[in-house]
């Protein structure tokens, strides 16, 4: 329904009639109980008031320049009585005089554009309005700029960012707002206008003209509900129902449904959440495959421990078409599991202010770390000397002056031992603060956290020898017992969230754990463990020397996961024209058997049929992990298996390796129905 139908009023230029119709309708609505109906009526009123202005102007007669009767040396009349300057050419007989008021023409054309209801995202629909821009006077330009501001204020919810940028290009609305050359209300709302959701409007042809404004307005409000981070089930359900009643093929609405679902259960702990999520994601992928659906797919795989954290964190927030709230919520949860404090804070700090009920106490605690202050021992000693010197100087001055009695001296100045005692209490307090914040590392069940505590946090702890005896063996024990701990490089760790661990099982090394500081690309230390989970080797500065290339190769192996190996095969082999270089630079993703296969088939054409392909997770009767690689037509083409280190172990497919038909059928039968993409 358009604004006139909502107001039950014929299009008119009389603003009083519009106001009367609005007031009559308003009496029929309970504003508190029917907020959506009120908002719909208010939007119709605003639009009608705006359109009534264009009708007023369009009813005025079009005026043309009158021919001049008098002539002089500068201006002379032609045979038709049309005044021209000497430098001008005489217009032809068929040429019409120029229209005086360009504002009238602009309003008429704007009303025409609005009535067609196809102006949402197509710039070509707007170009006729500015075809004579060079003919506008300064006064006309200012008036047209005000018209555009009014139009944007009323309709930004149903405009694409491309259209808003286009209008801003002509009238420089952004500069006008910054220079306070617009009214205060517009300056306030301009920030919202500039940051409209990155929606697609291709769906408008599936919606009747009368319902397009209402549909796109409701879709915008759905986005804002999610962005606000506070679930509002009543408002959400009403607006979603209005949208889904008109069409079920809007990709953006479906991804908003997924976002709202995760706003209520981003950990995906409830079975109903998983069921609804998979159903909605399948709907979305059936309509469009893009980075947003791939992001959701990667997050689901990670939550179910079948995907890599890198597959989630690799996405740029600006490339996704969902609310920033959703992206921050999900990425923050991944960082929380990795215990990367600074990244968690970056993602969740604003969200926790909007709606702290989204998070559990331990999650909120990570956003409020204790501020730890370290006092180096050398500085403490110099402080004692300084305090002692000041004290002696004061004593000397008091004796020389003879003004203060000895009793007063005792009352006025503390003894050196008292001052030292006072400073010790302060230092003990600070030490206790450090211990209170980081003591969890010492008492942790994780061996690597205890190691961090004894060798990088509190190197004087009396329990360090016991830790070495109980938890290290071989060369690691010898080094830990004989080394001078103070010679280890200083690692700035003020919180248990300043570093993260990457445990893995690596060929040639066995169980290892890499410890990396936040915002660093490489670990500062790697711990190797024996079968009894004791530290058997320590690689890093100050410990066992491992050649740079071997250290980097070990770190690369630690980062290998089945999903990363699969991605290597599809993206960096099947779809790449640089296979030789990729094989040379990424040996960690394949076993020797697979390396021979890849080398054998490296001359095959680029397999473009996998650019829009999908993959499915499966397993055999022994719960061994497989992934099924499908082409763009969803036909099964490859089955990949992995060894215990996450490397490609077998590639089954035509002209590759063969697999028993019974086993192949079992893998296909056990595959999850959800098909995940895009690479």
TrEMBL record:
Residues 67-98 are annotated as: Disordered. Residues 68-80 have a biased composition (Polar residues). It comes from the Bacteria. This is J domain-containing protein.
